[in-house]
Amino acid sequence: MMDATEREIANRRLVRKLLGVVAAACVFAFALVPLYDVICRVTGFNGKTGNAAAQVEHATRVDTSRWVTVEFVGNTMPGLSWEFHPRQSSVRVHPGQVELTSYFARNITNQPVAGQAVPSVSPGQAAQYFKKIECFCFQRQELKPGETKEMPLTFYVSPDLPENVQTITLSYAFYRAVQ
């Protein structure tokens, strides 16, 4: 049997161990978010695409033997009072062909609001073949009260896209950016 002093020492040790486990879990949770994002960008998992600006020189080959339809979708998430939509709902491109399109955004509040767009490509297997050269999603966007903005997007679909993929949907979810 333990006396009161030994029990108190054992309890303090247990509390320190439990606090260490909680601290380790918090560090792991914070490290998991950027790690997940990197994995998604590299593999194209979850429809994430990377910045293709450095890869644009690989787009010199255009496959004129086939067409791919790229559909555009835009959504704002709760907490962001913007009007946001693509200027065109879809475009047909030859794989390897560089294309320019844009999205429209308007702040419908009476205060400045910043947002960040998160892209998603479906089907998921097409994400690694969809290359953004220039995109408003690369940085945070801020709109003054009532301000409107054209948000350009320059992209291409890699000629290596599997033949069975004929339609790609690019969807942007705009979230309120933390100030």
Summarize the structure.
22% of the residues lie in helices and 37% in strands. The protein has one helix spanning 4-43; strands at 68-76, 82-86, 90-93, 99-107, 113-122, 130-135, 141-143, 148-157, 167-176.
User: Would you report the number of β strands?
Assistant: 9
Walk across the major sheet and give the strand order. Answer: 3-1-9-5-7
CATH superfamily of the largest domain: Ctag/Cox11
CATH topology tier name of the largest domain: Ctag/Cox11 (Pfam 04442)
In whole angstroms, how far apart are the ends?
A: 57 Å
Strand content: 35-45%
SSE-based structural type = alpha+beta
Q: Which stretches of 5+ consecutive residues score pLDDT under 50?
A: none
> How helix-rich are the residues, as a percent range?
10-25%
Rg result: 23 Å
- Give the class-level CATH name of the largest domain: Mainly Beta
Order of helices and strands: HEEEEEEEEE
Report on the biggest sheet. 5 strands, mixed
Topology:
Layout: H1 4-43, E1 68-76, E2 82-86, E3 90-93, E4 99-107, E5 113-122, E6 130-135, E7 141-143, E8 148-157, E9 167-176
Parallel strand pairs: 1-9
Antiparallel strand pairs: 1-3, 2-4, 4-8, 5-7, 5-9, 6-8
